[in-house]
Amino acid sequence: MKRVILAAAAVALVIGAACSDSPSAPVETRPLLPDGLVVSNAQPRANGFAYVSAVPATFSNATSVTIRNLTRGDPGQSITVIDGGFDPVAIAAATGDDLSVLVQPGVDVAPVVARVPARRGPGIVRTNPSKENRDVAIDVPMLVVFSETVEKWSVNTSSIVLLDNGDPIIGSFPVTGVFQIAVDGLSAEFIPGAPLQPGTNYALVINSGIRDLDADALDATITVTFATAAAPPVAEVGGIAITAVTTAIENSQLDPDGYTVSIDYSQAQHVDVNGSVAVAGLKPGAHSVTLAGLSGNCGLADGPRQEAKVVAGVTALITFHIVCAPLPRITGRLAFVTERDGNSEIYAVNADGTDPVRLTTNTAADEGPAWSPDGKRIAFVSNRDSGGEPLGGSNIYTMDADGSNVVRLTFGSFNSGPSWSPDGRKIVFSGLRDGQHGIFVMSVDNPTTITNVGHARGYQSDPAWSPDGSRIAFTSDWRAFDFVYDAYVAKADGSGISILFEGPFSSPDGPQFYFQPAWSPDGGKIAVVVCAYVSDTCHPNSSVSVANADGSGLRSLVQTDGSARPAWSPHAGVIAFGSRSCRTCQRSLQYMWVTTGQSGVITANGHSPSWRP
Fold first, then answer.
1. Do residues 138 and 129 touch, judged by C-beta distance below 8 A?
2. Residue 37 burial by CB count (10 A; 0-12/13-18/19+): exposed, middle or buried?
């Protein structure tokens, strides 16, 4: 987007008046700007922020830099330098501001000064693996760090491509996988669908399909060639075969998603409730094997961790014995989203997992169900009338509880997150209007007139109407656009907005964000997804947490990821949520008793629940 790489050969700036006929007049020059220092222009959605970064090896001997806005006279911000560079840092600035960069340690070295440009295309600060790395692990995710926020839709398999046999590029072919994009749009991970081949050349190609928030393209295609480490000799490695044996007491429920196993705390792998998984290529010696992902009604007879001794050329055998007991029975019926039919569709199911009924049948994506207070209708989100738009064509609809009588309510773009007023006459939702993604209220019977009830600017989402109809909770980046995401609450008419959960700009444990607030039926509690790491859909460092309605007493209830979307049961004792036990595992619809912590699975392949009143 808005980035300038300031070349080392920049011409010295002459300061003060110097007449052409006075060659001996003294002049003041600024230090030459180092090649690799990266400055973006002020971000359009960042409320006066520009990003400053440095590619690796820019400041070879530095341990830190201090960045100050000279134009504003700000006190400055200290940044740790790693491998001679640092990732993008938000600095309060506007177009034309002068930013000084002082290198530490630096004896008698004046700071360099860079000016915030009006507009520039995005660049690449660093990648992992780095260029010409010849010893890359076969399970490493591909990380790309941008110099500024990029449009998330532009990060795809066309703009970032991993090529096998990448040296030379000719004759190579793409490697399949999935993308995980940071919420702030400053980085993206490409996760290959399978481990890379050992001892193989690859190329990570990033091209001009990457766009910033001003639709400026990456100014040049970047090709990062690397090679994976050679496989260890067969005679020097062994393996472990891990088996899960699950016993159900009195026909208790088993977890249909199975469990996860990891060796030496590496990336988790799936194993069925009564199944096995084999891991090869392990060095001889002792290895720690951990089993996780159990439902709340299940326990491990021998503990969650065992030690296996690997011998070269031999597969060690490990068995975990799991016992599952009956859970307290839950009742009610939920609408939820599933991809079991090949795309996102809305189903209804009993809380015990019986009687699943498909409610939508459409080639488009149908998501975000919200049951009306009288239980007769369901509001939902769909791009069925997008006219071929790949993005931005989502709108709010209603249908009867059996899936019939579909009515379209909105005709805007990026509409999502419907929530009913307690009297069933209005719906609050998030959507894009006049260039701002806000929180709006519309009448169900006359949806053409909408009222903005959130902040006037910024990105806002996940609205939830309180049970008494007086308040609306929602998520917003109002404090620093695209930088922090907090939970707010406002009166139903949009007045009296106050912060409910506020995360720090930075902390030793990383950033913390709050999404998807959900009121308890009596309005006394509120559930929220607390995300401690915004990329990778918050997995695994996030949780469903519960607090008092005023935001006090926040406590973690269960670890999950960004797809949780918690929903309280009508009797308030149970919260349903979406979860998955590993980054690439299928999501399942689960529940947890708030007071006891007992949990179970409602149905496999499900998420985004809404209870029928």
1. no
2. buried
C-alpha distances in Å from residue 410, one per residue of 359, 368, 386, 404, 608: 20, 15, 12, 18, 21
Burial class of residue 242 in the structure, from the number of CB atoms within 10 Å of its CB (0-12 exposed, 13-18 middle, 19+ buried): buried
CA 206: distance to chain centroid? 21
* 498-501, strands of its sheet edge to edge: 460-465, 471-476, 486-491, 498-501
From the list 71, 67, 56, the residue with the least C-alpha distance to 104 is 67
Distance CA 33, CA 39 (A): 11
Q: Could you tell me what percentage of the chain is helix, strand and coil, using 3-state DSSP and rounding each to the nearest 5?
A: 0, 45, 55
Could you give the CA distance from residue 474 to residue 463 in angstroms, rounded to a whole number?
4
Distances in Å between the Cα of 590 and the Cα atoms of 38, 401, 498, 543 are 45, 22, 32, 13
The CA distance from 3 to 8, in Å, is: 16
Kindly list the strands in the beta sheet with 173-174, ordered across the sheet, starting from the edge strand earlier in the chain: 173-174, 160-164, 201-206, 222-227
State the Cα–Cα distance between residues 243 and 253, nearest whole angstrom. Answer: 20
| DSSP label at residue 438 | E
Predicted confidence at residue 534, as pLDDT, reads 52
Look at residue 332 and give its three-state secondary structure.
coil
pLDDT at 257: 74
Average pLDDT across each block of 10 residues of the chain; the chain has 613 residues. List them in order: 33 31 44 82 78 91 90 89 92 91 76 89 92 89 91 89 66 75 89 88 90 88 90 77 89 78 86 92 91 81 86 91 82 94 93 94 92 96 75 85 95 89 96 87 92 89 95 91 86 94 69 89 93 61 87 86 86 85 77 82 92 95
159: left (phi over 0), alpha (psi -120 to 50) or beta: alpha
In 3-state terms, what secondary structure has residue 28? strand
The number of CA neighbours under 13 Å toward the Cβ of 44 is: 14
Exposure string of 266-298, with b = 16+ CB inside 10 Å and e = fewer, is eebbbbbbeeebebeebeeeebebbbbbbbbbb
Got the DSSP string for 443-456?
ESS-TT-EEE-S-S
**163 Cβ contact partners less than 8 Å away, ≥ 6 residues apart:** 169, 172, 173, 174, 175, 202, 203, 204, 205
* Rounded-to-10 torsion of CA 215, 218, 220, 224: -150
Asked if 574 contacts 560 with a C-beta cutoff of 8 angstroms, the reply is no
pLDDT given at position 26: 43
Residue 115 near residue 96, CB atoms below 8 Å = yes
Which has the closest alpha carbon to 424: 367, 491, 362, 372? 372
Q: How far apart are CA 483 and CA 48, in angstroms?
A: 12
Q: In a 3-state reduction of DSSP, which class is residue 172? A: coil
pTM for this entry: 0.54
List, for residues 474-508, the tens digit of each pLDDT value: 999 888 877 788 999 999 999 999 999 987 766 55
Q: Do 49 and 483 meet the contact criterion of CB atoms below 8 Å apart?
A: yes
Residue entry with tokens 């409610």? 359
The confidence score (pLDDT) of residue 581 equals: 67
Model confidence over 512-544: pLDDT tens digits?
Answer: 788 999 999 999 999 999 887 555 556 656 789
